[in-house]
Amino acid sequence: MSEIPAVKEWGEHKGPIAASENGFDVIDCEQCGFRHIVPLPATEDLKETYEHDYYSQEKPLYIDRHREDLEWWDMVYGERYDILEKALPAHQRRMLDIGSGPGFFLLNGHRRGWQVKGIEPSRQACEHSRNVLNLDVDNDFFSDSTATGLGRFDAVHMSEVLEHIPDPAMLLTLVHGLLNEGGMLCINVPNDFNPFQKALSAHLGFKPWWVAPPHHVNYFDFESLQKLVERCGFEVVHKEATFPIDMFLLMGDNYVGNDPVGRDCHKKRKAFEHALAVAGLTTLKRDLYTALAGLGLGREITLFARKRDGAGNMLRGAE
To answer: Cβ neighbours of residue 28 under 8 Å, at least 6 residues apart?
Structure first.
């Protein structure tokens, strides 16, 4: 018989413990509807980390690696813009990227004719966006105090943001308020505790390497992310996975803590997707990743949602 997980309570948050690491427990929270760590870190502590330390200590090679992979990233970003452009009228092309990083997603949109704006807490990443790419990016956190000065937008993009935020529902509610009628939201987050990871932990002895508190606060799957987004006033219109890179671990390529092996696996993933694009099979790849989302597989979740009006209706604008 399998053991019943212990239940943890922390204030209003309560749920079975899914994992423990670095003095934190990950609970499947009954109140929030998704897994997150307890205790929740203070916002001021996270602010200090992301302003000064994240790119220099946690991701020191991030900008260089992003440049190295830029051809592939442009393909990824281009497909996200393709979906947004199909969902929005041609005159609605104002984009906000929250947690815009070094700015390459915004640059891709600018080249397509979008009016783009970013907000990024890391000083290093913001300076790259401003000084190297010549983009309009504020060096700040997205919050109730900064959101009001940003303006209105037709689309908001958040990649690798919600997993870091102590109150993601509050952030999504702020985003809802910035979007024009029928506006679109694109979110990308890790797909954690997915079936492949569970197989690696349960049967091959892997520790849950994806659990990384306090930097990763929240741990979503497709169902919990969709429910959160819907509670915050959106209608999900499309979900797809990213490449299920955990398969390499199941096949014996152990990249956990091994950067050269990890880069080699990533190169194979890029080669796979590039080959399909060159062969004119991008639609097939998208269908494959959509099907994987239906199975809860894929290393990341990419979700597209449309703003509802106050009555709970989707506002589509002119199609």
So the answer is: 15, 16, 18, 34, 35
Spatial strand order of the sheet with 218-219 comes to: 7-10, 13-21, 24-28, 35-38, 218-219
- Tell me the two tokens of residue 164: 């870091």
Q: How many residues does the chain have?
A: 319
266: tokens are 């990533």
pLDDT per residue over 120-157, tens digit each?
999 999 999 999 999 999 999 999 999 999 999 999 99
Quickly tell me which residue has 């104002």 as its tokens.
94
- Across the chain, the runs of DSSP E, i.e. the strands, are 7-10, 13-21, 24-28, 35-38, 94-98, 115-119, 137-138, 153-159, 179-190, 218-219, 234-241, 300-307
CA distance 211 to 259: 18
42-248+283-307: CATH topology: Rossmann fold (3.40.50)
d(CA 101, CA 92): 24
End-to-end Cα separation, the chain, in angstroms: 55
CA distance 192 to 188: 12
**Contact (CB, 8 A) for 129 and 102:** yes
Q: What is the pLDDT of residue 46?
A: 75
The CA distance from 138 to 119, in Å, is: 5
| Domain ranges for the chain | 1-40, 42-248+283-307
